[in-house]
Amino acid sequence: MDGNGRWAKKRHLPRLAGHRKGVEAVRRAVETAPTLGIEVLTLYAFSSENWRRPADEVSDLMGLLRHYLRTEIAELHRNGIRMRFIGDLSGLNGDLVTLLGEAAELTRDNTKMTLVLALNYGSHDELTRVVRELATAALEGTLDPAAIDAAAIEARLDTVDLPPPDLLIRTSGEQRLSNFLLWQAAYAELVFTDELWPDFNAASLTAAVTAFGTRDRRYGGR
Ligand code: FPP
Fold it and tell me: How far is the CA of 33 from the centre of ligand 1 (A)?
């Protein structure tokens, strides 16, 4: 969800105004996605590298997230949205972690769409945690290193039980993955758009899904 800062800068507004508009775009995407047949929508809301931003911006982003969850969880639940969170949640404030746990628990049986928020998420951190867990199990003798395969890794990723992404969209003209779902996106189709995240709307999501529909997916075969 890139481009909130530039959206605000173009209007001579503080970055927070861009992030606020970004939350509106989140709302639109969550409403539109199920109408397009999307079963799982994952939003990269805060990366493990975003802590390097100025403290007031980090605090603004955490505040927006807290506000979004507090005010929208009931409606998300009414709309049949199941919520999941990926990332190292132990690095977040305790009150936020409690809120995330409540949201996941309340919505766990919903089936219309799964909304995954990536918070304090980075693929390098996620894979490092997996390797540490595998090494510990091997050292303790509960895991044979020769038995480590892709399934053993996937069973320990934050995305366990979620399908790999089919389509990965990055806004704001940047063309990189920035440490997002690097394992899981091995065969994802990539769509890059110049639109800034606050401008991303139902038509933008529909256009990305339409572009996805024209791709010839071969998964390494022919
Ligand atoms: C990137 O734009 C955006 C972020 C780092 C934060 C995304 C967060 C939200 C949209 C709000 C909170 C999320 C939820 C789910 C309620 P940028 O600031 O890097 O923009 P720039 O590259 O133009 O500076």
Answer: 19
Residue 132 belongs to what domain range? 127-158
User: Would residue 82 count as lying in a domain?
Assistant: no
pLDDT in tens, 126-178: 999 999 999 999 999 999 999 999 999 999 999 999 999 999 999 999 999 99
What string of H, E and C letters represents the secondary structure of 58-77? Answer: HHHHHHHHHHHHHHHHHHHH
Helix (H, G, I), strand (E, B) or coil at 120: strand
Amino acid at 44: Y
Residue 179 annotated among the catalytic residues of the structure: no
Q: Is residue 131 part of a domain?
A: yes
Residues 2, 4, 120, 125: which is the catalytic one? 2
pTM (predicted TM-score) = 0.97
CA end-to-end distance (rounded Å), the chain: 33
Instruction: Give 56's pLDDT tier (boundaries 50, 70, 90).
Output: very high
Question: Has residue 38 been placed in a domain?
Answer: no
d(CA 1, CA 19): 10
SS3 content of the chain, % helix, strand, coil (to 5): 50, 15, 35
The answer as to whether 137 is a domain residue is: yes
Distance between CA 93 and CA 71 in Å, rounded? Answer: 18
Pocket flag, ligand 1, residue 68 (CB < 6 Å): yes
User: What is the rounded CA–CA span in Å between residue 42 and residue 190?
Assistant: 14
DSSP 147: G
Ligand 1, residue 15: give the atom nearest the CA. 18
Number of domains the chain is built from:
1
